[in-house]
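Design job #97: recover the sequence.
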């Protein structure tokens, strides 16, 4: 069978409804890892859906656990010949909470429903739909060729939405077993629904609280105004010292020294578009001299996620005793993660704000990663996607958001190429999570082409 034939097989699988049936069974399982009551369902997803699907493709499977992890992992591998390229795959079967009552009429989180030509269901974008595409594409290549023509290793976790706790330690413990030439996985959105995309890492992310505890209680603003400090005002000025009125970061340690030439080249033809429901990009916001794509994929961003002083619900005529803000820095390769908060401390002290405390939150810090857009494996995957789609794929040096990608790059030593099968307006993590079926159908063909090409003997490892 030829490459064109396996692409046609993928289209037939989608058009016949077979792919939808497989995906529907996975969406129906309420795998909310943020809900402790769903713990048995997380294991059930691996045992009743993932394991049989992999074993039917000739993979050997093992359930792995780690003391730090609240949920199990499924590891599957199919080794055809040690001399062949080995590709590591990754996905997660857990989702955030369903938020059942907030979905629009005619849709629900735990059933794949079609409404106004779009498919709805919790996990369709993050991440059940994405790893289902990759697994089905691999199955179709096996059906067409009889073999993959490469070695495949796959890890499905069930705790990504709670911070992937234990994933790093599991990968470290099984480093030799998980060795591969390349990670090809799928998560996050394309640059736009219509354009195939790869991203090569992710921005790092650290959340922290800024707070001022001025005194034990509030005091009448008429009697004490002008005599005692207002922590709400002080904290506002402290934050204003961190970021300019138009969004430029003012802490030198928080921005890269330069944007690499290969990153600029990759982003030169990338236009950020959130779709009809997305916000309008503000040209004057963020680092001056950068394109929108460079600002979100090549630079750092500081955000105030929440701010509170006094009693916002029932304000009173009193100077508040305290102020608090939850803040976040998204950062790229080139920023020393260990220096982020110490640099902030030094900055605030220099600016006259020693009274502001800095407290890291309990969320796991994601570290920034990216591989060179000019890497041979990157260009190989992009060429495969272009051949199947007839479109020029977008190359993003890293996702604007954050993933535990550093576990794969730093612990396992893998080059990482992510091929996302979602789009910016998918309502991921919100009610009404959805994807256009046209995107899903195209993605299934794209991945069938990638996996076919991996077994055709022309990968960078075989040259």
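Job complete. Output follows.
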């Amino acid at each position: 069978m030829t490459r064109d034939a396996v692409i046609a097989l993928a289209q037939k699988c989608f058009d016949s409804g077979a792919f939808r049936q497989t995906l529907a069974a996975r969406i129906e399982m309420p795998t909310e890892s943020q809900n402790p009551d769903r713990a048995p369902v997380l294991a059930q997803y691996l045992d009743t859906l993932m394991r049989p699907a992999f074993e039917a493709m000739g993979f050997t499977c093992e359930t792995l656990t780690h003391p730090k992890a609240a949920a199990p992992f499924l590891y599957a591998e199919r080794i055809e010949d040690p001399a062949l390229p080995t590709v590591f795959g990754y996905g997660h079967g857990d989702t955030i909470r369903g938020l059942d009552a907030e979905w629009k009429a005619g849709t629900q989180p735990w059933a794949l429903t079609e409404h106004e030509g779009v498919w709805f269901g919790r996990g369709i974008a993050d991440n059940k739909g994405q790893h289902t595409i990759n697994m089905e594409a691999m199955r179709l290549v096996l059906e067409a060729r009889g073999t993959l023509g490469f070695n495949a290793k796959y890890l499905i976790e069930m705790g990504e939405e709670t911070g992937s706790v234990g994933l790093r330690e599991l990968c470290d413990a099984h480093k030799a077993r998980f060795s591969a030439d390349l990670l090809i996985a799928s998560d996050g959105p394309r640059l736009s629904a219509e354009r195939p995309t790869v991203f090569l890492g992710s921005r790092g992310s650290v959340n922290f609280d800024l707070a001022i505890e001025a005194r034990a209680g509030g005091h009448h603003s008429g009697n004490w105004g002008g005599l005692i400090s207002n922590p709400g005002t002080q904290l506002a000025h402290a934050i204003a010292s961190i970021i300019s009125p138009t969004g430029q970061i003012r802490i030198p340690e928080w921005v890269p020294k330069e944007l690499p030439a290969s990153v600029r080249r990759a982003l030169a033809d990338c236009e950020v578009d959130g779709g009809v429901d997305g916000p309008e990009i503000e040209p004057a916001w963020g680092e001056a001299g950068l394109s929108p794509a460079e600002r979100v994929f090549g630079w750092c961003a500081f955000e105030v996620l929440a701010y509170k002083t006094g009693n916002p619900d029932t304000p009173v005529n009193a100077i508040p005793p305290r102020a608090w803000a939850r803040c976040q820095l998204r950062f790229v390769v080139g920023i020393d993660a260990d220096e982020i908060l110490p640099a902030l401390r030094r900055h605030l002290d220099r600016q006259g704000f020693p009274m502001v405390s800095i407290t890291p939150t309990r969320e796991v810090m994601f570290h920034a990663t990216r591989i060179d857009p000019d890497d041979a494996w990157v260009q190989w995957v992009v060429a495969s996607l272009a051949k199947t789609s007839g479109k020029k794929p977008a190359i993003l040096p890293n996702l604007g958001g954050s993933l535990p990608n550093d576990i794969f790059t730093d612990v396992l030593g893998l080059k990482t190429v992510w091929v996302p099968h979602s789009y910016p307006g998918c309502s991921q993590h919100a009610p009404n999570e959805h994807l256009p079926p046209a995107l899903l159908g195209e993605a299934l063909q794209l991945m069938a082409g990638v996996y076919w090409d991996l077994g055709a003997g022309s990968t960078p490892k075989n040259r």
